[in-house]
Write a structure and sequence with these properties.
With 154 residues, this protein is mainly alpha-helical. The protein has a domain of 65 residues: Mitochondrial outer membrane translocase complex, subunit Tom20 domain (Mitochondrial Import Receptor Subunit Tom20, Chain A, Up-down Bundle), CATH 1.20.960. The chain contains six helices and no strands. The longest helix is centred in the last third of the chain and has 34 residues. The chain is elongated and about 80 Å long. The termini are far apart. InterPro entries: MAS20 (IPR002056), MAS20_rcpt_metazoan (IPR022422), Tom20_dom_sf (IPR023392).
Length: 154
């Protein structure tokens, strides 16, 4: 018995149709589940909270005495800020750029570059946000250094 192309095509078509039917059937069963919408809502809220938390924190602060760690943190904040601004999330993008400016060793040069490359309203948002960001970073660094001193005592 020889399998022709037509027979093979029909078999593949039938298998594809059966697979699609299987997928549709189980998707309907999943959607009928009374807990489905509740679980989906909880999962979305949790993901949104995690995303907003990671955006505002920008990751753990590096050791200020480690130049390479500070440089990596600086570059990471610049990259995240640019990505978020491009995605339209202006507040989070300005937050990350503010953190980069705060840890930058050459603040004036960075600000002049940002002023030339960013639209004026976003740059003004950054300038307004800088004192708040720098204060938060200082407080975070103080908390980190005090916890290190406590660990040293033990």
């Amino acid at each position: 018995m020889e399998i022709t192309r037509a027979t093979l095509g029909i078999a593949v078509g039938i298998a594809g149709t059966l697979f699609l039917g299987y997928c549709v059937y189980f998707d309907q069963q999943r959607r009928k589940d009374p807990q489905f919408k509740k679980k989906l809502r909880e999962r979305r809220q949790k993901a949104q909270q995690n995303a907003s938390r990671s955006r505002t924190l920008g990751g753990p602060l590096p050791d200020m005495s480690d130049h390479e760690a500070m440089q990596r943190f600086f570059l990471q904040q610049i990259q995240l800020g640019e990505e978020l601004l491009a995605a339209g999330d202006l507040e989070a993008g300005v937050e990350h750029l503010g953190q980069a400016v705060t840890v930058c060793g050459q603040t004036q040069q960075l600000l002049s570059v940002l002023q030339q490359t960013m639209p004026a309203p976003i740059f003004h948002m950054l300038l307004k946000k800088l004192p708040e960001v720098s204060e938060r970073l200082r407080a975070s660094m103080k908390a980190n250094s005090s916890s290190l001193h406590e660990d040293d005592v033990e």
